[in-house]
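Researcher: For the record, we're logging two predictions in this thread. I'll number them. Prediction 1 follows.
Model: Prediction 1, sequence and structure:
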Amino acid sequence: FFMVCAFRIHSPCKIIVDKMLTNIDSIKTMKFHLKAIERCNGKLIFSESQVKLKRFPLKIYLYLKGPELLWIEGENENNVLVNPNGFPFMNMNISCMNSFLRKNQHHTVKEVGYDYFREIIGETMKITGNNSDTYFKCQGEVEWEKHACHLIIADYPGFTYKDYVVKKGETLTTIAHWLHVNDYMLLELNSAKVSYYDDVKEGQIIKVPNVYCNKIILYVDKKLLLPRVIKVYDEKGLFEMYQYHDLLINSKIADEEFTKDYKGYEF
């Protein structure tokens, strides 16, 4: 219920956004160079990675200019295989929620593709329905990395924070998924009384945002009708930004490329 009438869409934008969501659903594989900026503890943290992704079942390989990560849905006890390429100088099998992987990260390894973003926007469209023509607007075109893109801006000035009573068995992550907000934002909002994502108790009152953000800016590629750039803002300014460079959709990726023994990997 917290994902209220957030980003409203009038018909020209609705056509573009509907098609964008449909195209995300049709993706089988992705390769891209991800450049990210995420605000953590008041500082903007830059990171970049090379990503290979298969969606069914979900398989992800990341190279982060040193460390390598491999995660395959349902395998390795759902742990991430990590080659840190540094201390402790050995492969590790750890949960995607491990503090080593979540340090200065808004999202888990499993959310590196478009699916998490698609869930947020799709839920917004479902709730707002056909009356969503106020907040979600097309602002013409912009060229990015020689790609012509639709410029779409969703502005929600009613962004605020509310109290939430934790239910039995919940964590910040399950609460965030339920409310379609970001669990890292919940962690920072409640840092005075919550030390980590699973450090909440039944009956505890925490602060949560009423929507994911108060503004989102999208550069949607006119040919692919997929986002090239996603910028997310809260009341403090830029919260996170993701740029998808060298984007290849539905190119062939051999199953061997999601194994630790694949040539070129250093697991």
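Researcher: Logged. Prediction 2.
Model: Prediction 2, sequence and structure:
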Amino acid sequence: MNFIITILILFIMLGLIISIHEFGHFIAAKKSGVYVEEFSLGMGPLIKQFKPKKSETKYSLRAFPIGGYVAMAEREMKGSKIKKDRVLENKGFLKNLWVMANGIIFNCFLAILLFFISGLLYGKPISEVKIGEVIEGKAAYNAGLEAGDKILEINGVEIETWDDFTLEASAKKLQKEYVFKVEKPDGKVESYKVVPEVVKENGEEIRVFGIKSSGTTFKKGFGSAVSYAFTGFYETTTTIFKILGSLFTGDVSIKNLSGPVGIYSVVDQVKSQGIQTLIYLTAYLSINVAIINLVPIPVFDGGRILILAIEKITKKRASEDLELKLNYIGFGIMILLFVFITFNDIIRLVVK
């Protein structure tokens, strides 16, 4: 029963994120006058399809909630009955850009809306990166850190949120020691060298510093909800970009990435924490989808935008054959990465 509940929650979350992304493409195409043959949620075998009267578009629901698509007239085809002015490539640079980027924009809108709803229901979370408790005998205690200390930097990197702390102290490569720069309750700034205890948990090495957060307070009200809509979006987006930057520099291992199996595991762990956590996770994943689609490789929206930009600069259209080859390469890269990430997700579950 627990498995079914987790799967249903995951399907609802992914379904919402994917449908909003594809709807962004769909509405931009429709508003631009592009012919849309099919709007599909999910990939693979068809489950349900309907076509409203006087509509040119078929609406489909498919078996696997790992994607979706908007089948539109993107290029002129010989013998096609579709009018030239309803083909995407004939709509000009700005309308092409809007159609390709609107899925990303809608995912950002979704995240902002979810943060607003969370702020309206539960309040805007306010939490300083302040130590609430230092566990006696552990690394932080032995180094001299105390409850009430506000963490300013770790190893020279500025810490503004607990996500920053987690990235620097737990996600990046293990360091021999961690230099904590903190502000004491009396305003003095001190530095402490902390050597964490490393323990094995579920087959992974976990660093134990022995500190706990001072907790989070919530400020309610419409104004606070509006504020959280944008600050939540900004802080989460910034955190994701920091993680991506650390992946490129090698400070964070690619093994830390999660696919659908890993996301299932996260949902299974946090669903007992309530709707607020699930709303945050959905917003976080929506921003992830937006950022991933910015990656300038074919298959993702970013790749198509890059080709469009090159065409604009060179004033030459890329050949259909070249686009097809690039799409195959991009799809191959995506599949390899998906398999690698899923394999690591399964290994983590099995080790548990």
